[in-house]
Amino acid sequence: MHLFTSTVGRKVLMAVTGLLLVGFITVHLLGNLSVFAGSEAINIYAEKLHSLGPIVWIFRLVMLALFAIHITFGIKLTVENSAATPEQYAIQVSQKTTFAAKSMIYTGLIILVFLLYHLLHFTLHVVHTGAVATLEPLVNGRLNVFAMVGNSFTSAFVSIVYVIAMIAVAFHVTHGIQSFVQTLGWNNGTSQDKVTAVGKLAAVAYGVLYVAIPLAFLFHIVKV
Amino acid sequence: MILDGKTPTGPIEKSWDKARFDMKLVNPANKRKFKILMVGTGLAGGAGAASLGELGYNVEAFCYQDSARRAHSIAAQGGINAAKNYPNDGDSIYRLFYDTIKGGDFRAREADVWRLAQVSNNIIDQCVAQGVPFARDYAGYLDNRSFGGAQVSRTFYARGQTGQQLLLGAYSALSRQVKAGTVKMHPRTEMLDLVVVDGVAKGITVRNLITGKIESHWGDAVVLATGGYVNVFYLSTNAMGCSVTAAWKAAKKGAYFANPCYTQIHPTCIPQHGDKQSKLTLMSESLRNDGRCWVPKNEADCDKAPGDVPEEDRDYYLERKYPSFGNLAPRDIASRAAKEQCDDNRGVGPGKRGVYLDYQTAIDRVGEATIAERYGNLFEMYEKITAENAYKRPMRIYPAPHYSMGGLWVDYQCQSNIPGLFVLGEANFSVHGANRLGASALMQGLADGYFVIPYTIAPYLASITPGTVKEDHPAFKESVEQVEAQINKMLNINGKKTVSELHRELGTVMWEDVGMARSDASLKNALKRIPEIRDEFWNNVNVTGEPGEINQQLENAGRLADFLEFAEIFAKDALHREESCGGHFRTEHQTDDGEAMRDDENFCYVGAWEFKGVGVEPELHKEPLKFENVKLAVRSYK
Amino acid sequence: MNLTLHVWRQKGPEDKGKLETYQAKNISEDQSFLEMLDDVNEDLIKTGKDPIAFDHDCREGICGMCSQVINGKPHGGQERTTVCQLHMREFKDGDEIFIEPWRAKAFPVQKDLIVDRSALEKIMQAGGYTSCHTGGVADGNALLIPKPTADYAMDAAECIGCGACVASCPNSSAMLYTSAKVSQLAVLPQGKGEAKARVKEMTDTLLTEGFGNCTNHYECQEACPKGISVKFIAKLNREYLKSLA
Predict the structure, then answer these.
(1) C128 and B550 in contact by Cβ < 8 A?
(2) Alpha helices, DSSP H only, in B263-352?
(3) Distance CA B200, CA C27 (A)
């Protein structure tokens, strides 16, 4: 399919999967923010998700596909692009591009590593098992998600890992949002600066809100 | 010898149609057997190569730039003429024909000019079909502007970059043919000799500018579209690489050089700023649509800021001298008028070699925004070079060498006196007479390329057997040896002067003595100085580097060597032409009020020079000009 | 003014090349940047050294031949200015100036500051035209193209093909160059018929010629001496999406 081999096609794939992933982190964030509404809220939210049954698995497969496409082409494009620029200038100046744009591959890789860690941590319970092992199950026999999260984030190490990862997400999204608009051809020349500003604002919001969760537990603003 | 232009007979309105019908054709199946070498890929060459390739000929195209798109046609700003009469202001093919003959001061061939005027309309259509973004109005119709030497609005334009857009159109057609495999491009390749076998053009010798290798290319016909030679003045509006080399090499192989003294000095260029300047920049003639030329009436006011010279102390000299054409007087007249004012010590700016081109009246009339819309990019360019804002302060302009009306002699078929050698565009002499009107160069280049050569080359090709002479012919070997010998000679002089120093010396002589005003004495001085500079070149030039690599000094040296031979024939032509006409102004031949005075009785002919050797008197051949449709008259723009 | 230049010198494509230092003395502020280099070259020739090779031709900002990265910025970074139009009044006495060639895999250095840009030609040959024949076309006014459309096409068509967009791009992508031609022809009725094939073939050629992928850095727009906007890349993207349908 031309989409997968074309330089523009792959850019479109990056943009569309990127946008859906932004959609995902938005929903995920809204869910997570329920920790601020007390222990009940997030447990109910977790319960709701689990009750969806097979839909969860369809969702997980879709997410896997999105990540796979986004990561595969992200790496491929980066490899091709660095092959296209074998020599560097003695004086390197950027006139327009941003740190976020230039570091997409790095923030992307940080997010990938974090993603694996995050799954091992809260989904598969392979790392930091202590946080789960000591938990009393809820009355319905379910895992006390609120307590698990809270216990984990009281560890400074875990919190710092999450904070770093979320800052990477924020940077990644800064470039991603305006890039998406451009790639789908919605930039008419005058809109671009506005879209970039909106993208930056959104990225800051994602960063601040996501970072707030571990920090709230770490500094005992929200107590387990 | 009396030359015959082989123009068609009968009524001029039917001349091109009749000629086309009378031409022999090449069978479509046979076309690919003929190899045509196209040298130069500007408007004429690019359009010609694309059109010939599309017809099915096997075309190889050569240019010294790294891409066909960079030929100097790209720098033309103002526009292209056509007799469309879209504005309903009285234009017609006949009027365009008449204006061009008159603008050229009655020194062009009628039939060639008629053909140009006739196909001008097809050019616009062709360019539109290619996607050239000509200026249009809100309803979507093509827009026109006025240009010098005409009282109708017939100039089509694409902002201030018309040449660029037309060239990119031709380049796109060429790219299409390259992809189709009918045209093979040889960029960064410079023609250094014409190969003539038994009096017939059969190929060229070129230097690959990257590897330095001297290569041979055979062709059943050689077409030169290599532009003009005004870089002989050193400072001109031409690109740095423009040269007479290809045309001169052909001349040295027997092609006649016609009217070399007809050069155009363009009135609206940015004045020279200092002695280290490498070229002059043109500001489009379209600027004279809205700009008014003036100098202070009193010498004492020349050093004042222009704003401090009150209206009544300004001399709008073009409006004063030529009330009916005013600021839109033809180029030769406007240039001479500017020189006159400066010679009268009323010039402005550094060195007092400049006149004002003032937009205040136009800005007051239509507003700054409209002026910006019309000429924004030109004002921007002016500011970059001079650091002055022309919306606030009048531009300073001065004439500069711009275009050569003269060129290799060709007949009606664009074929030179060497069979098989065709010459197109600025490189030939055919349609502009002694002065070219604005927006006519683009018209001629594209006319020759799209609509003339595809027809006129056929009768010649139909008369020969393709591929009879190839690179293994001894003439090619001999040519390569000659070219290599000259290169080695230049590299081994190891003198004290650089190529550009000597070029500047030549340029100074040409500008002072063979420039806007020429006299018997100045021309004789030039004819004394040119051989001296040439001798110094061959004894004291320092050309660095090796032959087998990129060597820009060597390229420039070769071009200068040709200019140094050509300049002599140029000055000789100017000396022999004891009249003033168009761009050729002899101070001995002027009316009481300083206008050019033609001598139709003795000089109503094309002067075509045959080169006989360096330092040997060239032979003059004449082609009498007959005017059957336009009455010879004193050109008046008053 | 007097200046210290650090100029990239490279004998040929196989040579490694390095920056060499030269002094430019008694430069007038009215000189153009290339006239300053002419002066330096005259000095080099007089001292028996090989002058600096650099591409240039029209010296009025339209042919697209000149191609130098000055202090890290293609064409020196002045807005809407090519190297040949850059004037020395933008510099001051004692300045150090780094002069390098366009750098990209698709633009191999041939000598000093001269690079091979034939890859740009291939992109044009892949579809940067309308397939009209010489002769036999309709009257220019048969197709009505309202001014805003003509202006839009002209904005795109101003590209001079110098390659500064590639030189400035962190990925060495030629997307701005490609998009200018795609956009010009896509909005005009005479180009619409071939729009789908054109955008596909031209962008595919980008990869086969060794250019990188566009990842929306927009450095190209800043570097472009004709101010071509990245909105044309958005337009190209739109045309590409249409071509899939």
Answers:
(1) no
(2) 317-321, 331-343
(3) 51
Compute the distance between CA of residue B18 and CA of residue B28 in angstroms, rounded to an integer.
22
Helix extents (H) in B77-187? 93-103, 110-130, 162-180
Beta carbons of B8 and B115 less than 8 angstroms apart:
no
Is the per-residue pLDDT at C160 higher than 90?
A: yes
CB atoms within 10 A of CB B474: 8
Mean pLDDT of A100-106: 97
Tell me the DSSP string of C200-229.
HHHHHHHHHTT-----S--HHHHH-TT---
pLDDT digits (tens, 9 = 90+) for C29-66: 999 999 999 999 999 999 999 999 999 999 999 999 99
pLDDT of residue B609: 98
Domain B474-624 sits in CATH at: 1.20.58.100
Instruction: Report d(CA B309, CA C31) in Å as an integer.
Output: 29
Give C236's pLDDT tier (boundaries 50, 70, 90): very high
Pairing of strands C96-100, C3-9: parallel
Q: How far is C1 from chain A (nearest CA, A)?
A: 23
Q: Which of B32, B84, B40 has the alpha carbon at shortest distance from B59?
A: B32
**B114-172 pLDDT per residue, tens:** 999 999 999 999 999 999 999 999 999 999 998 888 889 999 999 889 999 999 999 99
What are the domain boundaries of chain C? 3-111, 118-244
Nearest-5° Cα angle at A48, A43 to A53? 130
- Cα–Cα distance, A162 to A165 (Å, whole number): 5
Low-confidence ranges of chain B (pLDDT < 70): none
Q: Is B559 a catalytic residue?
A: no
What is the spatial distance between Cα B395 and Cα B306, in angstroms, rounded to a whole number? 10
Select the CATH number that applies to the domain covering C3-111 from these four: 2.40.40.20, 3.10.20.30, 2.40.160.100, 1.10.3720.10. 3.10.20.30
Whether A132 shows a pLDDT value over 80: the answer reads: no
The owner of tokens 């002094």 is C23
CB atoms C45 and B498 under 8 Å? yes
Asked if B266-399 and B474-624 have one fold, the answer is no
Q: How far apart are CA B193 and CA B84, in angstroms?
A: 41
Residue tagged active-site, from B331, B374, B529, B586 = B331
DSSP-derived letter for residue B182 is S
Per DSSP, the three-state class of B582 is: coil
Q: What percent of chain C stands above pLDDT 70?
A: 100
The CATH number of A2-86+97-218 is: 1.20.1300.10
Residue A216: how many other CB atoms lie within 10 Å: 17
Task: Specify the CATH number of the domain B266-399.
Answer: 3.90.700.10
Q: Which ipTM was obtained for this model?
A: 0.98
Q: Looking at this protein, which amino acid is placed at residue C99?
A: I
- Report the half-sphere exposure of A154 (CA within 13 A, side-chain side): 12
* Token pair for B580: 């003033």
Q: Is A91 on the interface with C (CB under 8 A)?
A: yes
Question: What phi and psi values does residue B253 have, to the nearest 5 degrees?
Answer: -95, 10
- At B282, give phi and psi (nearest 5°): -85, 145
Tell me which chain B residues have a C-beta less than 8 angstroms from the C-beta of C58: 70, 72, 74-75, 239-240
Beta-ladder partners of B395: B357
CA distance B361 to chain C (A): 26
- The dihedral sign for the CA sequence B87, B91, B97, B100: negative
* C118-244 is classed CATH 1.10.3720.10: no
Write the Ramachandran bin of B67: left for phi over 0, alpha for psi from -120 to 50, otherwise beta: beta
**pLDDT tens-digit readout, A141-198:** 788 899 999 999 999 999 999 999 999 999 999 999 999 999 999 998 888 889 999 9
